[in-house]
């Protein structure tokens, strides 16, 4: 029998656009993050689809200004600065620079999003956001 250890996508090297249909939260440390991931997995969330940014490397990958990903990324970040996503990017970058973690959990429907929000808050998640197609909700 093969046991598969599901792990989140940690500091995956790609450009993080708008995290539509995801709930995001800042977690203070590795213990809070492990608690959240374990609870998410117990709740039936496919943890291998979760994005996790950690520390300064996570801040580089997030690339708040878009400079590391070309002109298209810079333009997107410029547009995001004028919306609430700009504030979220700043908060996430600051948290990562301070050694905290940022988690992005994919959700489908209100029931799952409410469940994920409660799990992240119970694990110590702060600045919890739900990214919808045309707006960001502060649940």
Q: Which shape, going by the Cα principal axes?
A: globular
Number of helices: 5
Assembly of the depicted chains: single chain
- Along the chain, the helix and strand elements come as EEHEHHHEHEE
Largest sheet: 6 strands, mixed
Strand order of the largest sheet: 1-3-4-2-5-6
Number of domains in the coordinates?
1
Distance between the termini: 41 Å
Provide the low-confidence segments as ranges. none
Characterise the protein shown here:
32% of the residues are buried. The chain is α+β, with helices and mostly antiparallel strands. The model has no long low-confidence stretch (mean pLDDT 83). The N and C termini lie far apart (41 Å). Strands 1-3-4-2-5-6 form a six-stranded mixed sheet, with helices on both faces. The protein has one domain. 43% of the residues lie in helices and 19% in strands. Helix 2 packs antiparallel against helix 4 (84-97) and helix 3 crosses helix 4. Strand 5 and strand 6 (136-137) form a beta hairpin.
Summarize the helices and strands and which ones pair or pack.
Layout: E1 9-10, E2 22-27, H1 30-42, E3 51-54, H2 55-62, H3 71-81, H4 84-97, E4 101-106, H5 109-122, E5 126-131, E6 136-137
Parallel strand pairs: 1-3
Antiparallel strand pairs: 2-4, 2-5, 3-4, 5-6
Helix pairs in contact: 2-4, 3-4
């Amino acid at each position: 029998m093969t046991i598969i250890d599901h792990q989140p996508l940690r500091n995956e090297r790609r450009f993080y656009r708008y995290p539509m249909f995801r709930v995001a939260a800042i977690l203070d440390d590795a213990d809070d993050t492990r608690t959240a991931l374990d609870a998410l997995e117990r709740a039936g969330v496919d943890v291998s689809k979760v994005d996790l940014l950690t520390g300064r490397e996570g801040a580089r990958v997030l690339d708040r200004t878009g400079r590391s990903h070309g002109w298209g990324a810079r333009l997107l970040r410029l547009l995001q600065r004028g919306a609430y996503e700009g504030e979220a990017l700043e908060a996430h970058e600051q948290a990562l620079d301070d050694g905290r973690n940022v988690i992005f959990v994919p959700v489908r429907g209100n029931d799952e999003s409410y469940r994920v929000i409660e799990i992240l808050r119970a694990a110590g998640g702060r600045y919890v956001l739900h990214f919808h197609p045309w707006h960001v909700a502060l649940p």
